[in-house]
Structures are given as C-alpha cells and as structure tokens.
Amino acid sequence: MKKLDWNGFTKCTHIHTTVEKLYWCWATKEGLTSWFLKDAEFLRQVKLLNTSEFIQPNDVYTWFWHNWNGKEEGKILKANV
Predict the structure, then answer these.
(1) 16 is a domain residue
(2) In total, how many domains does the chain have?
C-alpha cells in the first residue's frame, strides 16, 4: 500500500468569472477579504496599500485567517503587474 504524503494537496474547482475579476480576488485586500481572509494588510516600502490597490513584487503582507487568532506574514515574490 502506498503511504500518503499530507505535506500538501490539490483541490480543483470551477470558477465562473472573468480573469480580471479572479485576479482582483487574489491580488487586492478588498478581493481577498471578500471571500478568503478575515483581514489582510499589504505594505509597499512601509506604506499601507489602500484596499483596492493591486499588489506588486516586494510588497509585504500580513494575513489574518477566519477562526484563527494568529497571523501569517510574507513577501510577494511575483505578480502580474
């Protein structure tokens, strides 16, 4: 029997929307918090981005998840600018 590796998984889903709307959902605070996160902060050179501003490489983020009091921090490595 093959041993399962639970270090990651893939889930496929069909999303009926435009590419532009999908990118907005992933690349802005407003989009991410409309469906995925409780809250998000993005900083560019120590300046807080507004809610509808698209992220860019080297921006830093802090994500706040639903049902978890912690936070996740990181740096944007790539973006479709």
Answers:
(1) no
(2) 1
The model's pTM: 0.81
Among residues 14, 59, 68, the alpha carbon closest in space to that of 37 is found at 68
Q: Which residues, 6+ apart, have CB-to-CB distance to 53 below 8 Å?
A: 28, 29, 42
- pLDDT tens sequence for the chain (81 residues): 677 777 887 888 888 999 999 999 999 999 999 999 999 999 999 999 999 999 999 999 999 999 999 999 999 999 997
Domain with 69, as residue range(s), is 37-81
10 lies in a domain? no
Cβ 25 vs Cβ 35: under 8 Å:
yes
| Six token digits for residue 5 | 């590796």
